[in-house]
Specification:
The chain has 234 residues and is of the alpha+beta class. The chain is 71% helix and 13% strand.
Length: 234
Amino acid sequence: MNEKTNDKVENNSSMGTQESADEKIDQTKDQESKIFAEESLDKNDTSSDDESSENNETPSEEGNLETIDSLKKELSENKDKLLRSLAESENTRKQMEKIRIETNKYGIQPLAREILNVVDNFDRALNLKDDNNEKSLEEGLTLIQKEILSILDKFNVKKINALGEDFNANFHQAMFEKETNDFEVGKVCEIVQDGYTFHDRLLRPVLVGVAKKSNQNNDKKAEDDENTKNEEQN
């Protein structure tokens, strides 16, 4: 009986061992299934991410190409505008240069036309000289002088009035000093040659004589001082 009991115990223990081994095998299979399922999910996620990234990259590349084409077109338009602007500037410069040359060449044409009238009047005056008519000649020359001054004034060439004015080195050129009682010291007392201005510029200075203190005045003053001194002593 003891032997039967022992066999039964051994059978139970072996069965328990077998069941334990089977449970471990089942657990291992379950773990392997879980791992396989997780790996499959990871692969699916990775493939979906790759596909989405590929899908995202395609429109981005197309956008970049469109941007490049737009920039090229804009660059070409700006280049064309710049070339047109340069061409217009060059044409304007040439026109201005042409006007400048023509102005320098033909600018005195109005003045020359006016002077021709003066030449005609001189011819008339010379014809009067042949007739020995001195009075008519003088009148003719006077009219010519007035006409010339009128023409100069018309072109803003004006005579400088210097007689009796203070000496001004900007418009006057002193040729000599002159003792005189008719003008104050430092005043222009004589005109050697008239001067003229053109617009606001000096065209030619006036050649002048400048008044200085007279020696007669100095002698008279010295004599008066001497007489006064003698009277005081007496």
